[in-house]
Amino acid sequence: MNRTVHVLSTLHFANALLDELRAVSPRLVLKQESIRDEREDSSYLLTGEEEVIFCGTPPRDLARAPNLKWVHLLSAGVDHIHTHPIWQKEVQITTSSGIHAVPISEFAFAMILALARKLPKIVRLQERAEWQRNAREVLSGLELHDKTIGIVGYGSIGREIGRIARQGFNMRVLAMRHSMNNPRRRYNEPGVGDPEGTIPEGWYSPAEITDLVRLSDVVALATPLTQETREILGEEQFRAMKPHALVINIARGELIDDRALVMALKEGWIVGAGLDAFSVEPLPRGSQLWHMENVIVAPHISGVTGKHDERATALFAENLRRYLTGLPLLNVVSRELQY
């Protein structure tokens, strides 16, 4: 007998996208109860029938969801639930890893190109209606062609950054991965990224991060936040970088030692940084990063485009099909690896 599966979404998806999810199977009873803030505890929405929840952050009072078997997160990262009650429960957790590869990788290169060609300084000159007299010297930029990019975290986003770097700019690609032997099934958009991992010319472990950044003209952070990767870029790594190096963070702010970053930017150990994630968000108004000419500050929006919800729905629909037919889910979180 085909039993009914109750699904709760606490997100803000359009009715047309919800209808796509309902079309997966007549067995699904899908209800959306949108909350204002994904950090809000949604426990009050639970009726006890929920078997599957699609959310930003799971409800905390899991006693109200005795039938819960699976939680699918809208985010790719899971560091925000490492201390959540669900981390200790035998509830399967999956993420939306893979849906952000295209928008975040494109945003990363927008920041790389802007910093390499000194666009922030050019825009400031335009705002003042000022024509730079010695422009050839002051605004001389860095060409990406034939340069080396070190990608810290070669998951779906890192692989698309690697593909763009290699195919678009003929860059040499170096990559760091937590593990080269990862049997978990991951979601990949067709034609996106480097599924077979053939692009990098060198592979590095987290313990070899200093060697990776020493060889890189651009360092792009795209790794999950774990105990192993917290402040993976510190003073030692910044001092080892080339003086013309650029650092791009489109992952998590805690991957960088903020004090060391500010020192590196002030003292010229690196030439610039593009930052879309910070250890404290919103970035405090008193942060020195706001006022540095060689820094781009973005409010954690690299993954936001008009196709976000469409991609998220497509992935969740595929996992719903797998769940209903007993196939392994995509993007299952490992508590041991912390992502």
What can you see in these coordinates?
With 339 residues, the chain is of the alpha/beta class. The chain has 2 domains: 5-99 and 306-325, NAD(P)-binding Rossmann-like Domain (Rossmann fold, 3-Layer(aba) Sandwich); 101-297, 3-Layer(aba) Sandwich (Rossmann fold), CATH 3.40.50. The protein contains 9 helices and 12 strands. The strands form 2 sheets. A 7-stranded parallel sheet has the order 8-7-6-9-10-11-12. Strands 2-1-3-4-5 form a 5-stranded parallel sheet, with helices on one face. Helix 1 runs parallel beside helix 9 and helix 2 (101-116) crosses helix 5 (156-169). The model has no long low-confidence stretch (mean pLDDT 95).
Write the layout of secondary structure elements.
Blueprint: E1 5-9, H1 15-22, E2 28-32, E3 52-55, E4 70-73, E5 92-94, H2 101-116, H3 119-127, H4 135-138, E6 148-152, H5 156-169, E7 172-176, E8 202-204, H6 209-214, E9 218-221, H7 235-240, E10 246-249, H8 258-267, E11 272-275, E12 295-297, H9 308-325
Parallel strand pairs: 1-2, 1-3, 3-4, 4-5, 6-7, 6-9, 7-8, 9-10, 10-11, 11-12
Helix pairs in contact: 1-9, 2-5
